[in-house]
Amino acid sequence: MLFSCKGNGQSTEIGLKNNAIEADSNVPFSGDYNDLLTLELASQITSFDPEQAQKMHTMKGMLGEMLRYYWENGRERHREASTPNRKNTKMTATDLVQIKWVDDEADMESFLNFIDLKAHPELVEVNGVGDNAYWNSKKQLLEVYYHGVSFTLQVDMSNDEAVNKEKTIALAKLMISEKL
């Protein structure tokens, strides 16, 4: 059995303008991580050369999806010995900017359930970022909620945790102002 709109007064046009399907202007974010965190934003916040960046986008479209831009800039981290008879070591560290756990159908209640403040006392509220944001000092990342979109963001470009926190917060604000 076939149905047709022809002859009943309904349009058979599919709403094309300039050969493109019209986007719903009420949807703030497409769901594509690449639309939210771009190489340009990552490079702008870190001041690293975008030509030197590498991109890793794992588990695209799946629950554990993650988008990461990273640079091998020769930064070293000092690792303290875990036992008394071992030496402290130097390790190379990769500078990175990453986003994960993006939910474009979030509400405040689901966001707060996801971050679970009772189970994670290391979370500290960050004012002025989205509708609600929390810094995780243990994992060095930022949990953000803004107008129905939640995400986890991290900038790791320094051995100074305060610098990483400052850059992560600045990137979240930039993403919200430019992309959401």
In short:
With 180 residues, this protein is α+β, with helices and mostly antiparallel strands. It has helices at residues 33-36, 39-46, 108-115, 161-179, and strands at residues 16-17, 20-21, 54-58, 66-79, 89-103, 123-125, 132-136, 141-146, 149-156. The protein is built from four helices and nine strands.
Tag the structure with descriptive keywords:
single chain, 180 residues, alpha+beta, two-stranded antiparallel ribbon, 9 strands, disordered N terminus
Please describe the topology of this protein.
Layout: E1 16-17, E2 20-21, H1 33-36, H2 39-46, E3 54-58, E4 66-79, E5 89-103, H3 108-115, E6 123-125, E7 132-136, E8 141-146, E9 149-156, H4 161-179
Antiparallel strand pairs: 1-2, 3-4, 4-5, 5-9, 6-7, 7-8, 8-9
Helix pairs in contact: 2-4
- Report low-confidence residues grouped into runs of 5 or more: 1-27
Count of beta strands:
9
Tally the helices: what do you get? 4
Q: Which overall shape is indicated by the principal axes computed on the Cα atoms?
A: globular
Residues in helix, % = 10-25%
Helix/strand-derived class? Answer: alpha+beta
Strand proportion, as a percent range, falls in 25-35%
Write down the Rg.
21 Å
Q: How many domains comprise the coordinates?
A: 1
Determine the mean pLDDT: 85
User: What summary fits the major beta sheet?
Assistant: 7 strands, antiparallel
